[in-house]
Design the sequence.
């Protein structure tokens, strides 16, 4: 059985949709962050797959993915730090309740 | 670049800013402010002497000390400088007012360092504006001068300061929007078809490529844009509120110098570059400014807040500046520039005195005060002198400026100009009414409030500030020909040739 | 003539002003008084020297050797402010008969007042008043301005000093600045005269625009360098001036020539300063100032500036007889009006103020009726003569009044009565002043007033009769005043008060000197010195004994009537008052002019113009700006919900948008 692109793309799409669904519905910032990571990783998979199947002679997609992973890691670290600090100061990580800075 | 004397008008304030940033206490701040503004005053006086020397030696170019440094070549933006008699006069005026303003805010509280930082930034803009002959940098400096006003009023002001600061900034920014539209329009018509576009004033004047149709659009844009800052009716309402809330030195600089940016811009950009449109459309603005001359004076008659009175009197006097500029002849325009100098000095004097009185009595309502002549004779006498200058007593600056304007305006023989000249003349009576009303209520008569009896007269720095201003006012009033000749040369015949006037 | 002395005449008072104004508070009162008086004394000597040199030296600069005509001589003329072409304001010094005359008058009166004030500005214990130095500084400023005014070489210099005398008058009327009535009087004086100056200014603008010059000499004769001759006006140059106006763009405006308009507007300035009828209201109130000031400014010098202005431009006025007729009518009405009012006033300074108005109106009428064809322009000479004699005797009367007020402590005649025994010197000098103003031979007023009446006679019968009537009234009200002050039964001296008495020598000496001048001034051969065209003539040749006799009789009738009514306390005045109560009330309230002005300024201008404009500005103009801000504010709030800050909402919207776009793309592709 030949494993074609579609075998990779469909799980990635499912992963992305899960991410979007989670991002929109969850109110907990940690959960939103996880959903965000899901979306990112889904895109990463797409990059790798397109690179492997469509332009086998090139490496741009791979490198892009590597960059994305690195930046995502940094971003997650910062986000977690912010969330922890927010939690420390207001004992709450629900986005709807964090309206102090408005007005 | 540093070989040009003009650039120091921007360099010195920048050095002052750096110096202020390093200051640690109020004494150092005062030292920096006073030394810096003294240096600027010395520089402007030196420039005045040197300029007259060059003119006497036969320099006939419209602008002297011209220089240009490329800044953003893709859009032809240069840092171009140059001055003529008018700019020199304005530079002298600005430096004197900055100096006296520094003395007047000797005991500013709180945050003296930040206050002086913004004040000096503002004056950087002012000086930069007067030395620029590149429309883009001119506009940039113009904005630099306007923005600090928001913070200066909002933070250090009094009364309804947030409202006033916001109103002043928004209205002036509204004017800037018109102005920017006009300036960009001028830029795109600065050269004949296929020629290289430029922002340089002199170059644009030489090309004379803006056709009449476009002028009809661009002239009102630039004139109104600058006119808002020149307190042109009906865009003057920022002035009473803004001045009433501003701290003393800011009122002085604003009324004394910033409002002059408006008149100067109207002349330098709107009329100098688009004389044909100025000639054709002058009547609209003559009506507006002619109205504002008497309108401001009448409004001043019933105000009870000292600063409101002075703000409305500024509307009247600045209206006269624009009125005279629109008369489009040498005499009236000379008068307009003299009126700018005169109004700048005497209104700064007024605001300084009002600030000093307010600092003592904690009220600006003339109904609450009376008989101050007995309590603080020095300030009261200075106030009377300022009032006399304002109502046009010979020997002080107001008289010569107004007379030059009236004589110049009377050169027009048609009924329209005659009627408006006579209407403007009427302001000398109304001015006398409101000035004497204030003098009578505030300074003379019996003492209204027993608590005022314990108040003290002026301190030495206050005396320095007021005496400097009074001497300047009297200098213009006693030797007007010196200033008239300084200014007059500028009105190069070519722009009047275009208009078809003398 | 050397430039030094004329410069000093102007410079010394100015220097004194700065010296006393700036350093006054560091010097003692006495020193300030001495300095001020000495400064004025030196100026007096210099001015006398200048005037005598001008009149009597016979130098070719001053007198034409062939014809004996007096010439105008410009001592110096410095550019002050250049407008365009030859329209230049200069500050200069013009010597001609009337300016030399005025130099003498001003310095004399000013010196007397300086001397007198040394005594007057103290209380009974010799303690100086507060602001004594300031008082002398202002007096010096006034003297400087007034001297600058009379020696002006051009109309703009005159306007400059005109404004300066206005300002110094303002300062001096408001000298007692803690008194509200003084403050409002000073304000009124300044604003009323300022309003008149508006006319003056517009007149100058018109005149200078069409003639292209400010110089007096060039208005009336072809320009001949620095020193034109005003009197060289002849048919040809007059024609030339007329041509300038005839060929100008707008020679006629509302049925009158531009020249007439200009001259009438300039006369309006004169009306303000000289307190002619509609603009007279400031002068009675100006009596709030110290009495020496009233003598100097509001009787002898500043108030005749309007007469001087018309005299200065007289050759120009001759080109427009309509303007001269207006002057005559205004003067005649004012003279009568002021005389009526003076008959019933209680405050002695007010009586003198109205009598001043009336006498200045005499001078105005005299100028108005003067024509070269009658008696070689007798009216002009008579007017200047009366200006001279009036300055002397009116200053005398005011200074006497000051001495009385100082002694009694009130302006009200009801507080006085019967002072002749207590104050003999004041009594005699006051009587001399009254005789002079009534026109009794041989006092100076007789001669000058008689010539004015002759001049009126030359012009029209009506003017003559009218002015003779006023002259009779003058005699009546002055002697009414005299009797009320010095006769009647004296008041009881209350215990602890000492009786009123003659004042210190500083105050009586000026009275005696001025009285002496008043006795002899009539015999000065005035026609030799001053005439409208500079040609001397013997005015005795124009002296009409029949007119003199008639005027003498009229004056005697006036005096007799006053004697009958007021020599002793009797019910006659009250009876007459009750016979015509309405007339008496109108006179007493000065025909309600002040009330009319109050109505116009407060009700119409203040409440009807200023307040609505201020309201309009705040509510409409500013309101529309605020409204603009309000609308943008509201609009921002309205769309504020879109910018909720909730990322999840944004994602929803984004997602829907993306899907919508995708769907549209798909539909388009398919």
Sequence:
């Amino acid at each position: 059985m030949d494993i074609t692109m579609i075998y990779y793309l469909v799980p990635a799409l499912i992963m992305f949709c899960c991410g979007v669904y989670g991002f929109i519905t969850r109110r907990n910032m940690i959960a939103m962050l996880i959903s965000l990571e899901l979306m990112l990783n889904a895109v990463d998979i797409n990059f790798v797959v397109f690179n492997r199947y469509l332009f086998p002679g090139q490496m741009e997609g791979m490198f892009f993915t590597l960059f994305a992973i690195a930046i995502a890691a940094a971003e997650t670290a910062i986000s977690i730090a912010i969330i922890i600090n927010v939690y420390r100061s207001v004992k709450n990580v629900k986005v709807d309740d964090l309206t102090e800075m408005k007005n | 670049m540093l070989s040009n004397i003009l650039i120091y008008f921007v360099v010195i304030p920048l050095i002052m800013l750096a110096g202020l940033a390093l200051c640690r206490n109020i004494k150092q701040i005062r030292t920096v402010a006073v030394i810096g503004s003294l240096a600027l005053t010395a520089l402007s006086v030196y420039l005045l002497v040197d300029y007259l020397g060059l003119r006497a030696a036969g320099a006939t170019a419209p602008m002297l000390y011209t220089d240009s440094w490329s800044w953003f070549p893709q859009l032809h933006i240069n840092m171009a400088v140059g001055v003529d008699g008018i700019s020199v006069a304005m530079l002298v005026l600005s430096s004197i007012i900055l100096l006296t303003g520094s003395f007047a805010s000797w005991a500013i509280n709180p945050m003296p360092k930040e206050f002086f930082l913004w004040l000096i930034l503002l004056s950087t803009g002012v000086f930069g504006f007067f030395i620029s002959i590149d429309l883009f940098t001119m506009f940039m400096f113009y904005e630099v001068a306007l923005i600090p006003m928001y913070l200066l009023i909002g933070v250090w002001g009094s009364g309804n300061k947030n409202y006033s600061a916001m109103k002043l900034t928004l209205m002036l920014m509204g004017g800037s929007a018109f102005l920017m539209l006009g300036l960009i329009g001028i830029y795109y018509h600065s050269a004949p078809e296929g020629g290289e576009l430029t922002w340089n004033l002199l170059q644009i004047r030489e090309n004379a490529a803006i056709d009449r149709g476009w002028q009809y659009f661009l002239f009102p844009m630039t004139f109104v844009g600058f006119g808002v800052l020149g307190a042109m009716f009906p865009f003057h309402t920022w002035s009473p509120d803004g001045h009433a809330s501003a701290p003393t030195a800011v009122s002085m600089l604003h009324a004394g110098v910033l409002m002059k940016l408006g008149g100067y811009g109207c002349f330098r950009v709107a009329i100098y570059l688009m004389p044909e449109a100025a000639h054709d459309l002058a009547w609209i603005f003559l009506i507006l400014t002619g109205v504002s001359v008497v309108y401001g004076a009448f409004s001043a008659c019933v105000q009870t807040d000292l600063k409101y009175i002075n703000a409305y009197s500024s509307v009247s006097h600045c209206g006269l500046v624009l009125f005279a500029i629109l008369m489009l002849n040498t005499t009236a325009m000379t008068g307009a520039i003299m009126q700018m100098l005169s109004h700048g000095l005497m209104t700064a004097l007024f605001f300084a005195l009002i600030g000093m009185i307010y600092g003592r009595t904690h009220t600006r309502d003339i109904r609450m005060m009376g008989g101050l002549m007995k309590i603080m004779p020095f300030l009261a006498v200075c106030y009377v002198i300022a009032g006399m200058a304002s109502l046009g007593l010979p020997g002080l600056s107001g008289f010569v400026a107004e007379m030059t304007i009236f004589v110049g305006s009377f050169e027009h023989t048609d009924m329209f100009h005659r009627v408006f000249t006579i209407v403007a003349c009427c302001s000398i009576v109304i001015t006398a009414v409101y000035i004497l009303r204030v003098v009578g209520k505030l300074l003379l008569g019996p003492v209204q409030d027993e608590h005022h009896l314990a108040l003290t007269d002026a301190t030495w720095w206050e005396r320095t500030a007021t005496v400097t201003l009074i001497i300047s006012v009297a200098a213009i009033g006693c030797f007007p020909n010196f200033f008239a000749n300084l200014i007059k040369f500028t009105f190069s015949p070519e722009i009047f040739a275009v208009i078809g006037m003398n | 003539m050397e430039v030094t002395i004329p410069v000093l005449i102007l410079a010394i008072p100015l220097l004194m002003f700065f010296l006393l104004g700036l350093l006054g508070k560091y010097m003692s009162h006495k020193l300030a008084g001495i300095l001020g008086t000495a400064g004025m004394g030196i100026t007096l000597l210099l001015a006398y020297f200048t005037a005598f040199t001008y009149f009597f030296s016979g130098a070719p600069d001053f007198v034409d050797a062939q014809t004996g005509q007096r010439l105008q001589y410009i001592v110096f003329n410095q550019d002050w402010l250049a407008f365009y072409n030859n329209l230049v304001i200069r500050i200069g010094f013009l010597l001609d008969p009337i300016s030399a005359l005025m130099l003498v008058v001003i310095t004399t009166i000013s010196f007397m007042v300086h001397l007198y004030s040394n005594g007057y500005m103290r209380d009974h214990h010799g303690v100086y008043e507060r602001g004594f130095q300031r008082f002398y500084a202002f007096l010096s400023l006034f003297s400087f301005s007034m001297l600058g005014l009379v020696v002006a070489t051009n109309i703009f210099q005159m306007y400059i000093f005109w404004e300066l005398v206005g300002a110094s008058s303002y300062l001096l009327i408001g000298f007692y600045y803690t008194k509200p009535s003084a403050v409002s009087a000073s304000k009124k004086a300044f604003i009323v005269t300022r309003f008149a100056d508006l006319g003056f200014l517009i007149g100058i603008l018109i005149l200078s625009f069409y003639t292209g010059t400010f110089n007096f000499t060039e208005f009336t004769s072809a320009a001949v360098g620095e020193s034109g001759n005003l009197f060289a006006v002849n048919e040809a140059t007059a024609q030339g001036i007329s041509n300038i106006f005839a060929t100008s763009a707008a020679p006629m405006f509302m049925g009158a020539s531009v020249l007439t308009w200009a001259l009438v507007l300039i006369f309006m300035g004169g009306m303000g300063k000289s307190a002619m009828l509609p603009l007279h209201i400031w002068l009675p109130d100006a009596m709030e100032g110290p009495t020496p000031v009233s003598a100097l400014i509001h009787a002898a010098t500043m108030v005749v500036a309007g007469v001087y202005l018309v005299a200065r431009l007289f050759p120009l006025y001759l080109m427009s007889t309509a303007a001269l007729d207006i002057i005559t009518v205004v003067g005649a009405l004012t003279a009568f009006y002021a005389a009526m009012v003076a008959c019933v006033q209680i405050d002695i300074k007010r009586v003198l103020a109205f009598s001043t108005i009336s006498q200045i109106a005499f001078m105005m009428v005299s100028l108005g009726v003067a024509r070269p064809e009658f008696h070689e322009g007798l009216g002009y000479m008579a007017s200047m003569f009366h200006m001279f004699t009036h300055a002397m005797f009116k200053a005398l009367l005011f200074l006497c009044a000051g001495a009385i007020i100082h002694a009694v402590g009130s302006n009200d005649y009801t507080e006085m009565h019967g002072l002749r025994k207590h104050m003999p010197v004041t009594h005699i000098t006051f009587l001399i002043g009254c005789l002079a103003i009534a026109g009794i031979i041989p006092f100076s007023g007789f001669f000058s007033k008689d010539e004015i009446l002759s001049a009126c006679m030359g012009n029209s019968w009506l003017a003559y009769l009218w002015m003779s009537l006023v002259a009779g009234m003058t005699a009546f009200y002055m002697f009414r005043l005299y009797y009320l002050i010095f006769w009647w039964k004296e008041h009881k001296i209350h215990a602890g008060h000492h009786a009123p008495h003659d004042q210190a020598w500083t105050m009586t000496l000026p009275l005696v000197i001025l009285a002496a001048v008043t006795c002899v001034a009539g015999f000065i051969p005035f026609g030799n010195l001053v005439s409208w065209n500079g040609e001397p003539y013997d005015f005795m040749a124009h002296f009409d004994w029949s007119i003199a006799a008639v005027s003498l009789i009229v004056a005697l009738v006036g005096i007799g009537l006053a004697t009958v009514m007021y020599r002793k306390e009797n019910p006659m005045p009250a009876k007459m008052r009750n016979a015509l109560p309405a007339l008496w009330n109108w006179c007493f309230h000065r025909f309600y002019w002040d009330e009319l002005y109050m109505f116009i300024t407060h009700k119409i201008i203040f409440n009807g113009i200023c307040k609505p404009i201020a309201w309009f500005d705040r509510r409409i103009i500013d309101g529309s700006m605020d409204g603009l801000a309000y609308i943008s504010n509201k609009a921002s709030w309205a769309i504020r919900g879109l910018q909720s800050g909730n990322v999840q909402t944004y994602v929803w919207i984004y997602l829907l948008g993306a899907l919508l776009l995708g769907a549209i793309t798909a539909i388009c592709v398919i």
Summary: Chain B touches chain C through 56 residues (CB under 8 Å).
